[in-house]
Amino acid sequence: MTADRGPVSAAEDGEARFSTWTGKTRGWALRRLPPDKLLPEGQPSYVSSWIYVFGMGAVAAFVYILGSGAVLALNGPTWFHVSGLGRFINSTHLWSVELFFMFMVIHLWGKFWMAAWRGGRALTWITGMLAFVVSIVTAFTGYLLQTNFDSQWIAFQAKDALNAVGVGAWFNVADLGQILMWHITLLPLAVAVVVALHVVLVRMHGVVPPLEAATSDAQLRSAAPIPAVDGEDMK
Amino acid sequence: MLGIKQADAGMPDTGIYFQWGDFLIQFGNLVVIATMVVLFILALVIPFPHGKTRK
Amino acid sequence: MTKAPVSVSWRARNDIASRPWPGTTREYDLFKELAVGLVVVALLVLGLSAVFSSPDEPTVTLKSWALTDPADFVATATTELGGTSGTAGYGPPYNSTPDATQKLGPIDLQSLSGVRLPIDTANDFVIGPLQTLPTPPGAIDEWTKASDTQRASWTMAYGDALSKAPDNDPAKVPPGDYGPVPALAGALLAMAQQGTLDPVLSARGSFYNTDYKASILFLGDGGYFHGLADAQHLTGDQWGMMNETGNYPGQSWLWLFSALYQVEPFKSSPNADVLVVLSMVILTLLLTLVPFIPGLRSLPRRIPVHRLIWRDYYKRR
Q1: Cis bond leading into C199, ω under 30°?
Q2: Does the predicted model carry a pTM greater than 0.80?
Q3: Is residue A216 in some structural domain?
Q4: Residue A176 lies in a domain
Q5: Which comes out higher in pLDDT, residue A220 or A121?
Q6: Which CATH number do you get for residue A135?
Q7: Please, which chains are in contact with C (at least 3 CB pairs closer than 8 A)?
Q8: How confident is the model over C219-276, as pLDDT tens digits?
Q9: Total of domains in chain A
């Protein structure tokens, strides 16, 4: 921590030294998400359960969905019917999606029972749910793209729910071109953006502490004393 | 009353289904859902390795 | 207990949950976790793909339908001509059949789009495709010149006769006043059996086309397509949306959406689709907004699964 580390010391001293929009944005970003918060080397001692690994598991599965999906996209939606390699890549796409949803749902169950929205983390919860919903729509469009009996039937059956709420005229499940574009551009981009936002929010707020954590706990007492906490908690 | 339904011949490989009254579930989906529940319970029960304590 | 209940509020206050953790920490390498995750998931994905592959049940075509179940094809073509098929009576966005839409009390969302993907089943599924033949059947003339009432009485009579014929076989229908209908349906069957109806119906007079709604709706009006789906447990009353062909896992995350269709009041409602979608929207919003809903957000406190998750922490308090 030397004085020559400009931006950090500037951010610590307040925004006064930034005069441009760009500089102010940097100051804001550094204050909200300083590098040691974005890429920490440790976690609070209570982060000690296997339940914590499923969020990262979902991210890992998402990486393989994007990778296998990119190979399928390069070769077109009917490639996997006629190529052995295509069929294998299609299989990895299917199984990474199944794993993605399994990990994401277990992650959701875990975070629900932790009441992980506490302490100003509501938006983290909401972006997580949004990631789940957008992923469901993305997977649905993928099922419509199989160009086999399953996709024919899903197109026939799913149109009713969409038409009943007046959406089917614009989101035409039988239009392969339209569904292809949704599935390979708009929706994966939306999932990626929402997931990225979710991860950034998690890093900004940190992992939610245990429900019954109290300032008298050994793991809090061993640190520097935090004055006024109890008093302000009463408010 | 569990009934395992082997679908009629016609199309090949029509799958195994389990039915309890109105509740009907396909083998693959049942495996996925059961795996999720098992993983969730295991994640809660199995001890997490202790890392180096800092601070 | 004199302690105040543990807060499950989403609000940021000056409490332990809202401020950066000031207590003990442990080494936790996020990037190493990601790397290990990538390796584990890669092994799982490759293993599952190698062992189980993925489903790929071949498509049904109008040709395979016409060859496998010609009686069903002819009966369906007759309903398309007579305007009595499922598609003909569907309402928006395909046509404006009165009282066909699903409603939510006075709210009619289905009509909001208007007829945006227009389909006239007689012309689009039967007459139009027949006119693309090198020598269109003469029966088309007779059909186009007839009045609507005349057409309706022909198709009705022929449809009745088909349903009463042994095996619904068009060849075993007794003579009657069916006008040009048997000739038109027969010509369409021949066209489908030769495989020329598939491209005509999907391309609809154009070179490029990616919209298969005409073919899918025509297939869906018949019994053959439904029969195949039924055998694979894919229909709505079989939890169809979440199922995949064979034993492959499908969209199991749609379980609640599929489940609602199996229970009253949705099961027997003519407005089942709109009711199910609305229910799912409400339930999804409830889950999304759990942090703001008193009672619901207290569940984690009342059912203390967290004692298990953080048992190490609570042990060393």
Answers
A1: no
A2: yes
A3: no
A4: yes
A5: A121
A6: 1.20.810.10
A7: A, B
A8: 999 999 999 999 998 998 888 889 999 899 999 999 999 999 999 999 999 999 999 9
A9: 1
Residue recorded with tokens 């069916």 = C178
pLDDT of residue A221: 66
Supply the ipTM of this predicted assembly: 0.94
CB-based contact C303 A222, cutoff 8 Å: no
Q: Are B45 and C308 in contact (CB under 8 A)?
A: yes
Residue A50, domain member (yes or no): yes
Q: Do B17 and C249 touch (CB under 8 A)?
A: no
Closest CA to C100 of A137, A163, A142: A163
Q: What is the pLDDT of residues A63-87, one digit of tens each?
A: 999 999 999 999 999 999 999 999 9
Mean pLDDT, range A197-224, rounded to an integer: 86
CB contact under 8 A, C245 and B13: yes
Please report residues of C whose CB lies closer than 8 A to that of B48: 312
Interface of B with C in 8-47 (CB under 8 A): 8, 10-11, 13-17, 22-29, 31-33, 44-45
Residue A182 lies in a domain: yes
* Strand B23-26 to B53-54 pairing: unpaired
Each as own residue / partner, the long-range contacts of residues A131-137 (CB below 8 Å, 24 or more positions apart, any chain) are A131/A104, A131/A191, A131/A194, A131/A195, A131/A198, A132/A104, A132/A105, A132/A108, A133/C284, A133/C288, A134/A187, A134/A190, A134/A191, A134/A194, A135/A100, A135/A101, A135/A104, A135/A191, A136/C251, A136/C253, A136/C254, A137/A187
Q: Are A201 and A124 in contact (CB under 8 A)?
A: yes
* DSSP 8-class letter at C174: P
CB < 8 Å from A in window 1-55 of B:
32, 35-36, 39-40, 42-44, 46, 48, 50, 53-55
Percent of chain A with pLDDT over 70: 87
